[in-house]
Write a structure and sequence with these properties.
Layout: E1 2-9, H1 14-26, H2 33-54, E2 62-70, E3 73-80, H3 88-91, H4 106-113, E4 116-122, E5 126-134
Antiparallel strand pairs: 1-2, 2-3, 3-5, 4-5
Helix pairs in contact: 1-2, 2-4
């Protein structure tokens, strides 16, 4: 198994950094270019959620990104120590957002582009989003893990 961990400031400009870092790391696995694009979208959504919702755009916080690869399987974990999610089930509903300026599709994209998807969160303690995908796996709708 190969692993990498990144921690970076909760600044909007680091969303692009996270995308590139994950794409470079998972390129060791036999993902297609469309697969890599979907993985980059997932990373953008998860990191953006941490920055915008978890930390309420406070640039002085830290987002943690854990990556691992084993065989043709990759796992990503995005962690913030922000405000947390009051109601995870409600947050997972398509088009739900606590910010009226946002479309609320981030979790929907994450679920549809990954094989496994799990959100853990406690108000006042932060959120952990764990996602995984196997290279070459047929795409299907994912039911979030409980």
């Amino acid at each position: 198994m190969n692993k990498a961990v990144l921690e970076f400031s909760s600044r909007a400009e680091n969303v692009a950094f996270a995308r590139v870092a994950v794409a470079a790391f998972v390129s060791q696995v036999d993902f297609t270019l469309p697969d890599l694009e979907e993985i980059k979208v997932v990373v953008s959504e998860a990191v953006s959620n941490a920055i915008i919702h978890g930390y309420e755009n406070n640039p002085d916080q830290v987002v943690r990104l854990e990556m691992s690869i084993a065989d043709e399987y990759m796992e990503l974990v995005v962690i913030d120590r922000g405000k947390g999610i009051e109601d995870i089930q409600k947050a997972l509903e398509p088009a739900f957002s606590t910010d009226p300026e946002r479309m609320g599709l981030g979790f929907s994209f994450m679920q549809s582009f990954m094989d496994k998807f799990k959100v853990q969160s406690k108000p006042g303690q932060g959120t952990r989003v764990k996602m995984s995908r196997r290279a070459g796996a047929p795409r299907r709708a994912v039911v979030p893990e409980q």
